[in-house]
Protein backbone atom coordinates (compact mmCIF):
# COMPACT_ATOMS: atom_id res chain seq x y z
CA UNK A 1 0.00 0.00 0.00
CA UNK A 2 1.50 3.34 -1.04
CA UNK A 3 -0.22 5.52 1.56
CA UNK A 4 -1.89 4.37 4.74
CA UNK A 5 -3.43 6.22 7.68
CA UNK A 6 -3.91 3.91 10.65
CA UNK A 7 -6.32 4.86 13.45
CA UNK A 8 -5.31 8.52 13.31
CA UNK A 9 -6.49 10.90 16.03
CA UNK A 10 -5.78 14.61 15.58
CA UNK A 11 -6.47 17.40 18.05
CA UNK A 12 -6.43 21.19 17.79
CA UNK A 13 -5.88 22.05 21.42
CA UNK A 14 -8.69 20.35 23.36
CA UNK A 15 -10.83 19.83 20.24
CA UNK A 16 -10.56 16.49 18.46
CA UNK A 17 -10.62 16.92 14.67
CA UNK A 18 -10.07 13.32 13.53
CA UNK A 19 -11.34 10.21 15.33
CA UNK A 20 -9.63 6.88 14.55
CA UNK A 21 -9.37 7.66 10.83
CA UNK A 22 -7.95 4.86 8.68
CA UNK A 23 -7.48 5.38 4.93
CA UNK A 24 -5.54 3.43 2.31
CA UNK A 25 -4.38 4.45 -1.17
CA UNK A 26 -2.73 1.90 -3.45
CA UNK A 27 -0.33 2.86 -6.24
CA UNK A 28 -2.30 3.85 -9.35
CA UNK A 29 -5.51 4.30 -7.39
CA UNK A 30 -7.71 7.38 -7.01
CA UNK A 31 -9.32 7.67 -3.57
CA UNK A 32 -11.82 10.36 -2.58
CA UNK A 33 -12.53 11.70 0.90
CA UNK A 34 -15.96 13.31 1.02
CA UNK A 35 -17.77 15.34 3.63
CA UNK A 36 -19.36 18.65 4.44
CA UNK A 37 -17.82 21.65 6.14
CA UNK A 38 -15.86 20.88 9.33
CA UNK A 39 -15.99 17.15 8.61
CA UNK A 40 -12.21 16.73 8.90
CA UNK A 41 -11.37 16.52 5.20
CA UNK A 42 -8.71 19.23 5.14
CA UNK A 43 -7.26 18.01 8.43
CA UNK A 44 -6.79 14.62 6.76
CA UNK A 45 -4.72 16.25 4.00
CA UNK A 46 -2.71 18.25 6.54
CA UNK A 47 -2.01 15.07 8.47
CA UNK A 48 -0.71 13.29 5.36
CA UNK A 49 1.60 16.26 4.71
CA UNK A 50 2.62 16.37 8.39
CA UNK A 51 1.40 19.95 8.69
CA UNK A 52 -0.41 18.65 11.75
CA UNK A 53 0.79 15.71 13.81
CA UNK A 54 -1.50 12.93 15.00
CA UNK A 55 -1.71 12.42 18.73
CA UNK A 56 -2.30 8.71 18.10
CA UNK A 57 -2.11 6.46 15.07
CA UNK A 58 0.32 6.40 12.17
CA UNK A 59 0.77 7.76 8.66
CA UNK A 60 2.77 5.37 6.48
CA UNK A 61 4.29 5.98 3.05
CA UNK A 62 5.37 2.71 1.45
CA UNK A 63 5.28 1.18 4.92
CA UNK A 64 7.57 3.83 6.42
CA UNK A 65 6.17 5.77 9.36
CA UNK A 66 6.22 9.53 8.71
CA UNK A 67 6.36 10.35 12.42
CA UNK A 68 9.09 12.94 12.88
CA UNK A 69 9.16 13.87 9.19
CA UNK A 70 8.77 17.53 8.26
CA UNK A 71 6.52 18.65 5.43
CA UNK A 72 9.54 19.21 3.11
CA UNK A 73 10.64 15.66 3.97
CA UNK A 74 7.23 14.31 2.95
CA UNK A 75 7.34 16.26 -0.32
CA UNK A 76 10.86 15.03 -1.03
CA UNK A 77 9.60 11.46 -0.62
CA UNK A 78 7.19 11.95 -3.51
CA UNK A 79 4.01 13.44 -2.07
CA UNK A 80 2.77 16.47 -4.03
CA UNK A 81 -0.01 18.76 -2.86
CA UNK A 82 -2.60 20.89 -4.63
CA UNK A 83 -3.95 22.89 -1.68
CA UNK A 84 -7.33 24.49 -1.23
CA UNK A 85 -7.37 28.00 -2.75
CA UNK A 86 -4.21 27.18 -4.76
CA UNK A 87 -1.77 29.00 -2.42
CA UNK A 88 0.24 30.69 -5.18
CA UNK A 89 2.74 33.51 -4.68
CA UNK A 90 0.67 36.30 -6.18
CA UNK A 91 3.58 38.66 -6.91
CA UNK A 92 5.70 35.98 -8.60
CA UNK A 93 5.37 34.91 -12.21
CA UNK A 94 3.56 31.78 -13.29
CA UNK A 95 6.90 30.21 -14.21
CA UNK A 96 8.37 30.96 -10.79
CA UNK A 97 5.32 29.47 -9.09
CA UNK A 98 5.51 26.25 -11.09
CA UNK A 99 9.24 25.95 -10.42
CA UNK A 100 8.52 26.18 -6.68
CA UNK A 101 7.39 22.57 -7.03
CA UNK A 102 11.06 21.67 -7.44
CA UNK A 103 12.09 23.34 -4.18
CA UNK A 104 12.67 20.07 -2.33
CA UNK A 105 14.73 18.70 -5.26
CA UNK A 106 16.51 21.88 -6.32
CA UNK A 107 20.01 20.81 -5.25
CA UNK A 108 19.96 17.73 -7.46
CA UNK A 109 18.92 19.44 -10.70
CA UNK A 110 20.83 21.52 -13.22
CA UNK A 111 19.23 24.59 -14.77
CA UNK A 112 18.68 22.64 -18.00
CA UNK A 113 17.04 19.79 -16.12
CA UNK A 114 14.74 22.20 -14.28
CA UNK A 115 13.77 23.79 -17.60
CA UNK A 116 12.99 20.37 -19.08
CA UNK A 117 10.82 19.53 -16.07
CA UNK A 118 9.01 22.86 -16.45
CA UNK A 119 8.29 22.20 -20.13
CA UNK A 120 7.04 18.73 -19.25
CA UNK A 121 4.77 20.00 -16.46
CA UNK A 122 3.07 22.74 -18.47
CA UNK A 123 2.58 20.63 -21.60
CA UNK A 124 -0.93 19.67 -20.42
CA UNK A 125 -1.88 23.27 -19.65
CA UNK A 126 -1.86 25.55 -22.73
CA UNK A 127 -3.18 28.47 -20.66
CA UNK A 128 -0.30 28.08 -18.22
CA UNK A 129 2.29 27.71 -20.97
CA UNK A 130 1.05 30.91 -22.63
CA UNK A 131 1.28 32.87 -19.36
CA UNK A 132 4.63 31.82 -17.92
CA UNK A 133 5.87 35.43 -17.71
CA UNK A 134 2.60 36.76 -16.29
CA UNK A 135 2.26 37.62 -12.60
CA UNK A 136 0.23 34.84 -10.97
CA UNK A 137 -2.01 37.20 -9.03
CA UNK A 138 -3.50 38.53 -12.26
CA UNK A 139 -4.85 35.13 -13.33
CA UNK A 140 -8.42 33.95 -12.92
CA UNK A 141 -9.20 31.36 -10.26
CA UNK A 142 -9.37 28.60 -12.84
CA UNK A 143 -6.04 29.58 -14.36
CA UNK A 144 -4.47 29.68 -10.90
CA UNK A 145 -5.76 26.16 -10.24
CA UNK A 146 -4.00 24.97 -13.39
CA UNK A 147 -0.76 26.60 -12.20
CA UNK A 148 -1.12 24.73 -8.90
CA UNK A 149 -1.68 21.49 -10.82
CA UNK A 150 1.43 22.11 -12.95
CA UNK A 151 3.40 22.87 -9.78
CA UNK A 152 2.44 19.42 -8.47
CA UNK A 153 3.26 17.64 -11.73
CA UNK A 154 6.74 19.15 -11.99
CA UNK A 155 7.72 17.08 -8.95
CA UNK A 156 7.01 13.81 -10.80
CA UNK A 157 5.26 12.72 -7.61
CA UNK A 158 4.34 9.24 -6.50
CA UNK A 159 1.02 10.51 -5.13
CA UNK A 160 -0.83 13.83 -5.40
CA UNK A 161 -3.09 14.96 -2.55
CA UNK A 162 -5.71 17.44 -3.74
CA UNK A 163 -7.78 19.61 -1.43
CA UNK A 164 -11.13 20.87 -2.82
CA UNK A 165 -10.18 21.12 -6.53
CA UNK A 166 -13.53 22.68 -7.49
CA UNK A 167 -13.73 25.28 -4.71
CA UNK A 168 -14.24 28.84 -5.92
CA UNK A 169 -14.19 27.95 -9.61
CA UNK A 170 -16.75 28.78 -12.27
CA UNK A 171 -18.71 25.79 -13.64
CA UNK A 172 -16.70 25.98 -16.87
CA UNK A 173 -13.39 25.74 -15.02
CA UNK A 174 -14.68 22.95 -12.77
CA UNK A 175 -15.33 20.97 -15.95
CA UNK A 176 -11.83 21.74 -17.25
CA UNK A 177 -10.14 20.79 -13.97
CA UNK A 178 -12.02 17.51 -13.69
CA UNK A 179 -11.30 16.68 -17.34
CA UNK A 180 -7.61 17.04 -16.45
CA UNK A 181 -8.00 14.90 -13.33
CA UNK A 182 -9.70 12.18 -15.38
CA UNK A 183 -6.77 12.36 -17.81
CA UNK A 184 -4.34 11.95 -14.90
CA UNK A 185 -6.31 8.90 -13.78
CA UNK A 186 -6.04 7.37 -17.26
CA UNK A 187 -2.28 7.92 -17.06
CA UNK A 188 -2.14 5.98 -13.80
CA UNK A 189 -1.55 8.93 -11.46
CA UNK A 190 -2.14 8.06 -7.80
CA UNK A 191 -4.40 10.63 -6.15
CA UNK A 192 -6.06 11.31 -2.81
CA UNK A 193 -8.82 13.84 -3.50
CA UNK A 194 -10.68 15.70 -0.76
CA UNK A 195 -13.88 17.22 -2.07
CA UNK A 196 -17.40 18.37 -1.24
CA UNK A 197 -18.63 17.75 -4.80
CA UNK A 198 -19.83 14.19 -4.27
CA UNK A 199 -20.98 13.35 -7.78
CA UNK A 200 -17.80 14.47 -9.52
CA UNK A 201 -15.38 12.97 -7.04
CA UNK A 202 -17.22 9.65 -6.91
CA UNK A 203 -17.14 9.48 -10.71
CA UNK A 204 -13.39 10.16 -10.65
CA UNK A 205 -12.35 7.87 -7.81
CA UNK A 206 -12.02 4.12 -7.46
CA UNK A 207 -12.89 4.12 -3.77
CA UNK A 208 -14.17 6.71 -1.33
CA UNK A 209 -14.46 7.47 2.36
CA UNK A 210 -17.17 9.70 3.87
CA UNK A 211 -16.19 11.81 6.87
CA UNK A 212 -18.63 13.28 9.35
CA UNK A 213 -17.49 15.16 12.46
CA UNK A 214 -13.98 13.82 11.99
CA UNK A 215 -14.93 10.14 11.77
CA UNK A 216 -15.36 7.81 8.81
CA UNK A 217 -19.05 6.90 8.56
CA UNK A 218 -19.04 5.18 5.16
CA UNK A 219 -16.47 3.72 2.81
CA UNK A 220 -16.31 1.46 -0.21
CA UNK A 221 -16.10 1.34 -4.00
CA UNK A 222 -17.14 4.69 -5.44
CA UNK A 223 -19.64 3.20 -7.88
CA UNK A 224 -21.57 1.64 -5.01
CA UNK A 225 -21.46 4.75 -2.85
CA UNK A 226 -22.71 6.85 -5.77
CA UNK A 227 -25.92 4.77 -5.78
CA UNK A 228 -26.44 5.09 -2.02
CA UNK A 229 -29.13 7.70 -1.23
CA UNK A 230 -27.55 8.33 2.16
CA UNK A 231 -24.47 9.89 0.53
CA UNK A 232 -26.38 12.99 -0.58
CA UNK A 233 -29.18 13.17 1.96
CA UNK A 234 -27.68 12.14 5.28
CA UNK A 235 -23.96 12.72 4.94
CA UNK A 236 -23.36 15.45 2.38
CA UNK A 237 -26.50 17.49 2.78
CA UNK A 238 -27.49 17.19 -0.87
CA UNK A 239 -24.25 18.63 -2.19
CA UNK A 240 -23.56 17.85 -5.81
From TrEMBL:
SMART domains: AAA. GO terms for molecular function: ATP binding; ATP hydrolysis activity; branched-chain amino acid transmembrane transporter activity. CDD domains: ABC_TM1139_LivF_branched. InterPro entries: AAA+_ATPase, ABC_transporter-like_ATP-bd, ABC_transporter-like_CS, BCAA_Transport_ATP-bd_LivF, P-loop_NTPase. One of its GO terms (biological process) is L-amino acid transport. It holds the Pfam family ABC_tran. Keywords: Amino-acid transport, ATP-binding, Cell membrane, Membrane, Nucleotide-binding, Transport. Residues 3-238 form the ABC transporter domain. Belongs to the ABC transporter superfamily. This is Branched-chain amino acid transport system ATP-binding protein.
